[in-house]
Amino acid sequence: MKTSIQFVIGLILLIVMFGIAMIFGAASTSIQDVWQALFSNVKSDSINILRELRLPREVGAILVGASLAVAGAIMQGVTRNPLADPGLLGLTSGANAALAISLALIPGINYFGITVACFIGAAVGAVMVFGIGAMKKGGFSPLRIVLAGAAVSAFLYAIADGVGIYFKISKDVSMWTAGGLIGTSWSQLQMVTPFIAIGILVALLLSRQLTILSLNEEVAVGLGQKTTQIKTILFIVVILLAGSSVALVGNMAFVGLMVPHIVRAIVGTDYRFIIPMSVIAGAILMLLADTIGRTINIPYETPVAAIIAIMGLPFFLVIVRKGGRVFQ
């Protein structure tokens, strides 16, 4: 019953935050405008702005927040590493590098091609990080993995920058990788939504197995779980979620780090509750960050990635200081 109430409160907060995000911005709109934009066929300048610009942007914020939060929760559970995050373990930097290379080598590449390139890049980045971490016995310690992630991320970001400079497409690469929701369109959402939906659905279906894995792999094996297969599937899910997010908004670190820790403090350590609550909490966080970015310096925009970084860096330092137990 307590968990049900928590989910209901979370959904209410998500709806409220979505309404706030739709109302506030550079263009003046009212609650009535938002209602008509969502539930009527009335047309006006303000309603068109809501339908064609702000609505896809906030839907994108919900999808990205949910996908990164779930990806972070999965990574923290599988690796039993409280510092795991798609942005810290090479996935987003790999996707960025692949995006830059694809823009350079295939100038006319469409959005589907960019999305596939981001998936491949995310996989390569993660494999590099975990490969380096596994080179030495005991290499999967949280500290070693984070250090490997920092080194690989710096290397892959340098590749993205170098490709941009060499092929004279730095502006195009920066537009994609700056980390923002500006220009999010319905066509882009139609492309990435199925991948995100499939990833979250599979994560929910495997949440029980993930709970056991997060506690003790030997116990999971003893209970008859095929841990290698489960880890492989979950790894693919993380790639889908992180790749889709980068294809939509570019860099967005710390969402996958913060949200699972906050959620565990609310619902406990059972991933049957952590995964769905991460969807809600991640969406709320991204809506909040996007709203702050759009309203803090009207008519100019502050990049969402900067807002998230301001929130996430102190959080990261506290987790490091406390050894990952600050919200346990």
Question: Helices, strands, pairings?
Answer:
Elements: H1 2-23, H2 31-39, H3 45-79, H4 91-105, H5 111-133, H6 142-166, H7 170-177, H8 186-205, H9 207-215, H10 217-222, H11 227-249, H12 255-267, H13 271-295, H14 304-322
Helix pairs in contact: 1-13, 2-3, 3-8, 3-9, 3-11, 3-12, 3-13, 4-5, 4-6, 4-7, 4-11, 5-6, 5-11, 6-7, 8-11, 9-13, 12-13, 13-14
Description:
This protein has 328 residues and is mainly α. The model has no long low-confidence stretch (mean pLDDT 85). It has a single domain, classed as ABC transporter involved in vitamin B12 uptake, BtuC (Orthogonal Bundle), CATH 1.10.3470. The chain has helices at residues 2-23, 31-39, 45-79, 91-105, 111-133, 142-166, 170-177, 186-205, 207-215, 217-222, 227-249, 255-267, 271-295, 304-322. The protein is built from 14 helices and no strands. Helix content is 77%, strand content 0%.
Query: What Rg is obtained from the alpha carbons, in whole angstroms?
Result: 20 Å
Bin the strand percentage: under 5%
Order of helices and strands: HHHHHHHHHHHHHH
- Chain-averaged pLDDT: 85
User: What general outline do the C-alpha atoms trace?
Assistant: globular
Structural class: mainly alpha
Oligomer: single chain
State the end-to-end distance: 21 Å
What is the CATH superfamily? ABC transporter involved in vitamin B12 uptake, BtuC
CATH class: Mainly Alpha
Main β-sheet description: none
**Number of extended strands:** 0
> Uncertain spans, ≥5 residues at pLDDT below 50?
none
Total individual domains:
1
| CATH fold annotation | ABC transporter involved in vitamin B12 uptake, BtuC
Helical coverage, percent range: over 70%
Secondary structure tally, helices: 14
